[in-house]
Amino acid sequence: MNVFVTGATGWIGSATVDELLRAGHKVVGLARSDASAASLEAKGATVLRGDLDDLDSLRRGAAEAEAVVHLANKHDFANPAESDRAERAAVETLAEALVGTNRPFMVATGLSGLFQGRPILETDPSPDVSPNSHRGGAENLALDYVSRGVRTIIIRFAPTVHGVGDWGFVNFLVSAARKHGVSGYIDDGSHAWSAVHRSDAAKLIRLGLEKAPAGSRLHAVAEETISTRAIAEAIGRALDIPAASIAQEDAKAHFGFIGSFFKLSMTGSSERTRELLGWKPAGLTLVDDILGGAYKEAGQQ
Question: What is residue 107's three-state secondary structure?
Fold first, then answer.
């Protein structure tokens, strides 16, 4: 397949491009900078210059592709409304270009926006529908296009997609631990996260494009439940500093913005995903990745 990938040089996107190329697919990657373009070309991918707000480039990339993987997101935590607006506009533009083609359209989102008080299942719909909701209601918007001849596939990522070079949530936890000399967990550390290694996430994206039927929700979850205390203790061992409880009222001062996520349980099941696609995660566990030095550079300025 000729696959158009947004976020092609991002954390998950770069591994996805590698995985698709290894499998014999052709890749066109969206690139907004000279450095991103050069990185894609060095891998053997084709470059389409543009960014998430360049709707003409998105439209062109989707129209000329046999499949679309939408991984880009502004992740503007200081202005989430802008991130949500851009996400909805991008999804709508890409989907409109695919109407009537029955081509696969994979849209990335996260388990972090879904809270059930239990592990999220693939059968659980997102409650976000309106343009003003989380991610602009893009998951449900994309699924609406199934009835219009688009093979929409939703992929929900665990709150941590980990590995060497990760700049996501665990990176911020390690930075906070290094800054304060203590690796913190909130209250008793019984809140839990799911996790997946970046290499396994990339494999799931490829399998989903190749096999998943229209309307599928896939969960990129290799480990369903890891306590936040276990995460903090692994960070403490890796940095040779103590792990300790941080009271909720002190979480913002200790962790920064990541504290609002670390005090939540964000878990999901991938049982249906594995059965549907034969996906078998084989990457390191989160704790082994931390202890193995994947985050040794985090927080070092």
Answer: strand
